[in-house]
């Protein structure tokens, strides 16, 4: 049975300075039929709602060094990276204008205060999970969750994700929440990772699936072993063993008509192990029925110079029109050396309707395609202002981490794939952080995927930075991207831009930040190096003709002297006629 086939693309540097795509087919990918465990049933709001009076612990959410890992996984000599960087140039896009944006509905989301009150400790950063539909919006961050009405009324008391998933914060470290509403089946999905359970010595992926269309109702809780040491039904991946288990970092969540897809970047917990992207494909109907007991696990996914990474599965605003044997699309970036690149990859997992059978027969392929140039960004600056925690410690004002140039969330709508990522940009004199986005037209023939960039452009603000894009696309292909604006002119603020295949509109700021970020993760006394963590992703999701967007910002009214950080999140709806 052939589970995985990929189009392998080699890289040749031409004198013109273009990195072309050419090559031959090659079988690749290690496939395992693994087990899932339905551990319990949970309801949002059924856990403890104790309000803690003191903050007893500070926790910086795990985030392995993906830039170093992918550089070390590359098979070519460093001379290739040097030559590639020499023939590509840092993008110099035309800056977008800035305006105050109007939204249909907008409200403050969860904050560090909610996390402290529901967990008894503070974490950084608040990775953003958002989903909406059927009259509800759900927000999940590190490490709290709540349900809202589509008018912005909070319908549930903020709850700890530990209570919801039934895990002990004393032996687990949950992080990286994602949220998805499946409009075709009217079910809600929430995923997280648990890098290490000290009680069992293993790592897990967690997936919650609602039993009804109301997110306040009961959820099935599934547990997937991601240790990958050959035990408990997991594959024996390189470097993964009982003394140094592997874990799935930076997990993502997507779906098509037949399956739900989690992807991770696999690292060793302690040793410098990096096995690249891992894909987990599970029958959607079995998940929703509470009967899912197995999944297809695909790893060992080499791509161009090295291991693939951050292979982002697509979600879609409308799956009712899907037919045939089923296809799930993915996008990923290819900047293996953390410099500059002008390629992205489109992936397709075909025959996904077979996921519900006892012997799934899916096939994975990819195509590397040329794109606009993007590259590893540096940290972002912020507007000077009072930062009580840092000033009390005697530290200078922090910079804000912009992470790296991995692909962020992907949407498949009206036959097109949309994705975006952080990138270094230049205004001709100085470099800042911008956003590169892509509109890709995928197709599958003979079981193999191919793709073409239909449109692409950048979002930037002169002299400032825009960080962490979250892309939302309606069923008819209308798109907008949420992000944070920060720089000498702006305290960290929530914003968005409407985009089409050729250009982005003005940047609309919907919630102005009122102070600098003042976060323990950037201060030397807490192990920081002057660059503070920021939510590793924003989010966008369609609900009919509306897009719900969410990102991190600094709302004010939160003292970092009490909570060691001052972050908040903002949720807003943008309607299209």
Architecture overview:
By secondary structure, the chain is mainly beta. The protein has one domain. It is built from seven helices and 38 strands. The strands form nine sheets. It has a nine-stranded antiparallel beta sheet with strand order 12-13-14-15-3-19-18-17-16. A hairpin with a 4-residue loop joins strand 13 and strand 14. The longest helix has 10 residues. It is globular and about 60 Å long. It starts with 5 loop residues before the first strand and ends with a strand. The relative contact order is 0.16. The N terminus is likely disordered.
| Shape by Cα distribution | globular
Characterize the main sheet: 9 strands, antiparallel
**Count of individual beta strands:** 38
Gyration radius (Cα, Å) is 22 Å
Counted by DSSP, the helix tally is 7
- List the uncertain runs: 1-28
Mean pLDDT rating? 90
The largest sheet has its strands arranged as: 12-13-14-15-3-19-18-17-16
Residues in β-strands, percent:
over 45%
Secondary-structure content class? mainly beta
- Domains (count): 1
Helix content: under 10%
Q: Report how far the terminal alpha carbons are from each other.
A: 48 Å
């Amino acid at each position: 049975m052939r589970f995985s086939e990929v189009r392998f693309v080699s890289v040749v540097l031409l004198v013109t300075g273009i990195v072309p795509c050419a090559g031959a087919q090659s079988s690749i990918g290690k496939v395992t039929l693994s087990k899932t465990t339905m551990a319990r049933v949970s309801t949002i709001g059924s856990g403890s709602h104790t309000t803690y009076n003191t903050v007893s612990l500070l926790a910086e959410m795990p985030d392995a060094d993906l830039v170093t890992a992918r550089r070390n996984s590359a098979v070519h000599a460093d001379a290739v990276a040097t030559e590639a960087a020499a023939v590509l140039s840092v993008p110099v896009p035309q800056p977008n204008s800035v305006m105050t944006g109007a939204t249909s509905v907008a409200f403050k989301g969860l904050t560090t205060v909610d996390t402290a009150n529901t967990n008894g400790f503070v974490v950084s950063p608040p990775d953003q999970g958002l989903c909406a539909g059927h009259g509800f919006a759900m927000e999940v961050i590190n490490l709290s969750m709540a349900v809202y009405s589509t008018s912005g009324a909070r319908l549930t008391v903020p709850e700890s994700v530990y209570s919801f998933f039934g895990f002990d914060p004393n032996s687990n470290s949950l992080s990286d929440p994602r949220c998805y509403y499946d409009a075709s089946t009217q079910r809600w999905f929430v995923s997280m990772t648990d890098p290490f359970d000290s009680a069992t010595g293993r790592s897990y992926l967690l997936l919650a699936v609602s039993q009804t269309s109301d997110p306040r109702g009961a959820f099935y809780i599934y547990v997937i072993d991601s240790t990958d040491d050959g035990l408990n039904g997991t594959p024996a991946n390189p470097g993964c063993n009982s003394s140094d288990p592997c874990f799935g970092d930076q997990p993502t969540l997507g779906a098509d008509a037949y399956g739900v897809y989690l992807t991770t970047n696999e690292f060793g917990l302690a040793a410098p192990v990096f096995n690249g992207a891992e894909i987990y494909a599970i029958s959607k109907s079995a998940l929703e029925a509470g009967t899912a007991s197995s999944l297809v696990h695909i790893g060992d996914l080499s791509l161009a110079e090295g291991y693939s990474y951050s292979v982002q599965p697509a979600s879609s605003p409308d799956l009712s029109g899907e037919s045939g044997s089923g296809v799930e699309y993915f996008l990923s970036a290819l900047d293996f050396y953390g410099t500059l690149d002008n390629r992205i990859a489109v992936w397709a997992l075909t025959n996904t309707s077979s996921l519900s059978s006892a012997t799934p027969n899916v096939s994975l392929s990819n195509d590397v395609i040329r794109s606009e140039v993007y590259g590893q960004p540096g940290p972002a600056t912020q507007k000077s202002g009072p930062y009580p925690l840092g000033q009390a410690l005697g530290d200078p004002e922090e910079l804000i981490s912009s992470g790296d140039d991995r692909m962020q969330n992907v949407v498949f709508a009206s036959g097109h794939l949309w994705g975006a990522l952080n990138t270094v940009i230049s205004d001709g004199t100085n470099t800042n952080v911008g956003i590169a986005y892509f509109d890709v037209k995928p197709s599958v023939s003979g079981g193999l995927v191919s793709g073409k960039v239909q449109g692409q452009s950048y979002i930037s603000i002169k002299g400032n930075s825009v960080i962490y894009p979250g892309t939302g696309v309606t069923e008819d292909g209308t798109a907008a991207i949420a992000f944070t604006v920060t720089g000498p002119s702006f305290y960290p603020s929530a914003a968005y831009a409407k985009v089409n295949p050729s250009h982005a509109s003005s940047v609309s700021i919907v919630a102005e930040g009122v102070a600098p970020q003042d976060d323990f993760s950037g201060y030397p006394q807490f192990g920081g190096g002057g660059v503070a963590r920021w939510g590793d992703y924003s989010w966008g999701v369609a609900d009919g003709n509306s897009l719900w967007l969410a990102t991190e910002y600094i709302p004010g009214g939160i003292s970092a002297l009490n909570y060691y950080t001052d972050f908040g999140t903002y949720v807003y709806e943008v309607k299209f006629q």
